[in-house]
Amino acid sequence: MICSQQAWNDFSQLVNEASKRGIRIIIDLVVNHTSVEHPWFLDTQNSRDTKYRHFYIKVNVFDQQNHPDSFLNFFGI
Most CB within 10 Å of its CB: which of 11, 12, 13, 64? Predict the structure, then answer.
């Protein structure tokens, strides 16, 4: 992420002012994420033979028995 100096200064001020009031700021950083509009993701939607097929784990979100991990997905349901 490219961040301007002003944006960084604004964020620092937010953290400092929140801290003065006993408020902590939590940042949710999503790594290894691509947009659903990214060409690689779109390519995987159109072809099972694409070289990008291993970049994504695709599962049926309603199939709770065969999830790749123990976390349940409730987004968009």
Answer: 11
